[in-house]
What we know:
It comes from Hyphomicrobium denitrificans 1NES1. This protein is of the alpha+beta class.
Amino acid sequence: MERRRFDNGSAPSSICNNRHSNVKDRTMIFKRLVPAAILVAALSIPPSTSAHAEADAESLVDALNAIFGKHDGLRAAHTHGFCVKGSFTPTAEAASLSKAPHFNSKTPVNVIGRFSMGGGAPDASNAQKDNVRGLALHFDIGGGNTTDLVMISAPVFVAKDPDQFLTLLTTVATKDKDKIGAFFKANPNATRQAEWLNARPVPASYATVNYWGVHVFTLTNAEGKKQVIKYKALPVGGEVGLSDDEAKAKDPDFYRPELKERLAKGPAEFTLTAILGEPGDPADDPTAFWPEDQRKSVTLGTISITDFEDDKTCDAGIFDPTNIADGIEGPANDKIFPMRSAAYGVSFARRTK
Ligand code: HEM
């Protein structure tokens, strides 16, 4: 399958060029831009809590591989997962926030999605508590184009910028408890996600947990009015978790049969909402919480997952957070955001070569 994209020219840098045909080229350009010596230097930075690791897409993917191993044909992160399909039906209110086609469609738009476990372990257990679940979506916006939304089951990420993420990964790769402990002590923002996850039960299903887009987006409507938001998808049937004992008794791969059983009875639905930002809400730090319960939100529509899809459909491209339709903009100064696109391109090039 051709990877379809919406090309609105809003990619944050030339490295993150959004054309499908350029995914491999993009990696090539990247390789040309980064002299080998710098790459080697980046890879050989001794893990340290104080070292300032210079991250780039290649070194981040290498660092993920150093922890989780290289697995031919598989993603370097969110490796354990599967592909699904369904639709998205926007509310009338969605158009008041954004002119993006899927928020203005009079009929449901087709969706291809992928549920996954965080990290690069192909056998990451579905019963793991301190790990995020992922929900990545391509919305079909017509003309062979898509707009993407890539979410996790926590409101925050583990690093505020690529350098901090690389230092975290290289420190974890040492398996040295003292170094790892010192890193988290020196970088308390990197502990927020795990604290958040550990305070909640293991989700009983990929379909019974909230997902967040984590980054801050700006929506623009047809009149040119802008609104800063964060995406949150809430399961229509509410959140359902397992007790620690129930989770312990589960098969490590229990989410697939669980979803099969669920879908036999009807679609797995999520309400996609936009949490409305207010002046002063942090916009460029994906480890920073918003006070969600003190913010208004607008319901954008319903994501309806109806069936499994051949994994090849999801593996034929990347779910790229920067692949977004006109009417949606990514954060201007959040360095993680464009780096994701570049790192996913590197992972894609490696898993398809
Ligand atoms: C610089 C920071 C990050 C790096 C280096 C990184 C790295 C990666 C890589 C290499 C992949 C596999 C891509 C592929 O082969 O298709 C991936 C997938 C994914 N990442 Fe990230 N990531 C980062 C930040 C984030 C953040 C902030 C989120 C939060 C929403 C996130 C959520 C996901 C999800 C849900 C997937 C799975 C997509 C799929 O199912 O194909 N990542 N990440």
